[in-house]
Design a protein that fits this description.
The structure holds two protein chains of two kinds. Chain A folds into two domains: about 210 residues, FAD/NAD(P)-binding domain, CATH 3.50.50; about 120 residues, FAD/NAD(P)-binding domain (3-Layer(bba) Sandwich). Chain A is built from eight helices and 22 strands. In chain A, helix 1 packs across helix 7 and helix 5 packs parallel to helix 6. In chain A, the strands form six sheets. In chain A, strands 1, 2, 5, 6, 7, 8 and 21 form a seven-stranded mixed beta sheet that branches. A five-stranded parallel beta sheet of chain A has the order 10-17-11-12-13. By secondary structure, chain A is an alpha/beta fold. Helices cover about 25% and strands about 30% of the residues of chain A. The mean pLDDT of chain A is about 95. Chain A is elongated, with a radius of gyration of 24 Å. Helices cover about 10% and strands about 20% of the residues of chain B. In chain B, a hairpin with a 5-residue loop joins strand 1 and strand 2. The longest helix of chain B has 7 residues. Classes of the chains: A alpha/beta, B alpha+beta. Chains A and B meet through strand 18 of A and loops of B.
Chain lengths: ~350, ~110
């Protein structure tokens, strides 16, 4: 059981800065995120795209912003629990008992949801029968590539994941790469490599095809793919891999008794608390009149939510407003030596 | 104003006057037309405002920018007449446009 003052759900820019604000006022926190690294949408959707509207930072990429925020919270030694999704919240007297998908448990005074537009989940095939094979012979990510040795694998998608795996697995497996159009969104060098492998007969490339159906008993045996013009091909396959990027889903947040409006959580603008006492929501996931989905708004919301958490974490103490330029306590927490 | 018709998956038809300059996505979101999630808010960073454009309108639309086709790879059941509605800016030329919203976005 991890005991801390505040649990932050989401390691995007808003969650990271909220951790900073909690640290400054002397509260401890831990952060959970469903992705395998911090940064949220900044890292997952646009690591290389420049952002131009962070105050006092004329231009930076999503990756730079994330690294700077991580640097900024370094003095507070915040614990990250990555690849974990918060599943359950239970009120336990004045505190919250929280459980994640991987079984990590927390005992906290308050919770800050900085979950963006929900947790990132792989996009799946629209063909219904795929569900039956998921996790057995159909995957959206690869954990153990050794199972594919000497097998026939049909890979769907045109981005870097699809191309990279097609190239890598073509060394030890028979690969069919299927994509809905001639163009690819993956790196040009990978596209060239795939085309070479196709010409050398080391990989079969099918473009302008999409999945029509999968069939098999316990394991997938054949996949039917359909051309834009309607022609259907049947290909033998031991495994099917789909790489269609990620989609954002609210997931378990829907079950926590919060007021949800159009996939966002309603909050007050005084301290960004939700209708449930002790649960706050900040960043893209919160809504209130005039809400702007900007990173800078998330920073503001995080600063106020952090102060809102104080009364739950330290009910017997009074929070005084202080500036980091002059507050001795804040500077000590930041580890500044004079 | 231009009239935009949205055919939703529940077989309903919504014809809305959408202000010029707004996107077809914004027209749907502001009028509570179901099925357009627009998770990224119009940044061409997701594919949850995906629509099918009625064939006769395809040629009249602005060409796809780099990146739109890449995002459409991620859409739910993309077809040849798929577009991201956040990239379709409403103008006089699009008065009468008809789009269908897929059964789901993810």
């Amino acid at each position: 059981m991890n005991k801390t003052d505040v649990l932050i759900i989401g390691a995007g820019p808003t969650g990271l800065f909220c951790a900073h604000q909690l640290g400054i006022i002397g509260l401890s926190c831990e952060i959970v995120d469903n992705l395998d690294k911090a940064g949220g949408q900044c890292i997952e959707l646009y690591p290389d795209k420049p952002i131009y509207d962070i105050p006092a930072v004329p231009e930076c990429t999503g990756e730079e912003l994330t690294n700077n925020l991580l640097q900024q919270i370094k003095p507070f030694n915040v614990n990250f629990h990555l690849n974990e999704r918060v599943e359950e919240l239970k009120k336990n007297q004045n505190r919250w008992h929280v459980k994640t998908s991987g079984g990590v448990e927390f005992d906290v005074a308050a919770i800050v949801i900085a979950g963006g537009v929900g947790s990132f989940e792989p996009r799946k095939f629209s063909v219904k029968e795929c569900e039956k094979f998921e996790g057995g012979s159909l995957f959206y990510s690869i954990k153990d590539k050794s199972i594919f040795k000497d097998k026939t694998i049909s890979i769907f998608g045109g981005g870097d994941s699809a191309l990279d795996w097609a190239i890598e697995l073509s060394n030890t497996s028979k690969i069919n790469l299927i994509h809905r159009r001639d163009g690819f969104s993956g790196a040009e060098s990978s596209v060239q490599k795939v085309k070479e492998l196709n010409e050398q007969g080391k990989l079969n490339l099918f473009t302008k095809y999409q999945m029509d159906s999968v069939s098999g008993d316990k394991q997938i045996e054949t996949v039917k793919i359909k051309h834009d013009e309607g022609e259907i091909k049947e290909i033998k396959s031991d495994y099917v891999l789909g790489f269609f990027g990620l989609i954002m889903q609210l997931g378990p947040i829907l079950d926590w008794g919060l007021n949800i409006n159009k996939k966002t959580v309603e909050v007050n603008t005084e301290n960004f608390e939700t209708n449930v006492s002790g649960i706050f929501a900040i960043g893209d996931i919160c809504s209130y009149p005039g809400k702007l989905k900007l990173i800078l708004s998330g920073f503001h919301e995080g600063a106020l939510a952090a102060r809102g958490c104080f009364k739950y974490a330290k009910p017997d103490e009074k929070l005084r407003f202080e500036f980091t330029t002059t507050s001795k306590a804040a500077q000590e927490r930041l580890g500044i030596k004079k | 104003m231009a009239k935009i018709t949205y055919h939703t998956h529940d077989n309903k038809t919504h014809t809305i006057d959408v202000q010029k300059g707004l996107t077809v996505m914004e027209g749907a979101v502001q009028n509570d037309i179901p099925g357009i999630d627009a998770d990224c808010g119009g940044g061409m960073a997701c594919a949850t405002c995906h629509v099918y454009v009625k064939e006769e309108w395809l040629d009249k639309l602005p060409a796809k920018e780099d990146g739109e086709e890449d995002m459409l790879d991620m859409a739910f059941e993309p077809k040849n007449n798929s577009r991201l509605s956040c990239q379709l800016i409403v103008s006089d030329e699009l008065d009468g446009l008809e789009v269908s919203i897929p059964s789901k976005q993810g």
